[in-house]
Design a protein that fits this description.
about 140 residues, alpha+beta, 2 domains, six-stranded antiparallel β-sheet, 4 helices
Length: about 140
């Protein structure tokens, strides 16, 4: 009876983990490996981390069972804070965003003329709010489910 309960609990954790998440732990480890040096060193370290199951533990155990489950139920992955995004268009306008530890995003928009605007994006359920530097609501968008 105990084995059946444990098996059901383990199966439930896997099914309810929302395993299609950001896989932040694996991605951070993989990105770190890419900064070690040349392609030979990166390949050797990658192979060693496959043989010594660092990648398997990081992806299978930490990401799928723990972090992606937290992300599925809360909407935010604890390790994903600090992730950043940058893009510049052909006219010279740019946007830079960084995910904060609380799940919000700090965004800096720069026009081609050099004018800057800093915003904080917050998400609650199906509403995204843009706040200026003083915390005033600038825009709000409702996401349809």
């Amino acid at each position: 009876m105990k084995k059946a309960i444990v098996t059901l609990l383990c199966a439930g954790m896997i099914v309810l983990s929302g395993c299609y998440g950001s896989n932040a732990c694996y991605n951070k480890l993989h990105d770190w490996n890419g900064t070690l040096g040349n392609k030979w060193l990166n390949s050797i370290v990658h192979f060693v981390m496959l043989v010594i199951p660092v990648y398997w533990i990081c992806f299978g155990l930490v990401d799928i069972l723990v972090l992606n489950t937290v992300e599925f139920w809360t909407g935010s992955n604890p390790l994903a804070s600090g992730d950043s995004y940058f893009e510049k268009d052909a006219q010279g306008n740019s946007i830079a965003a960084v995910k904060n530890a609380d799940g919000s995003m700090s965004v800096e928009v720069t026009t081609a003329a050099g004018e800057k605007a800093n915003l904080t994006l917050q998400r609650d359920e199906n509403v995204v709010r843009a706040l200026d530097a003083e915390g005033n609501l600038v825009a709000q968008y409702e996401i349809e489910k």
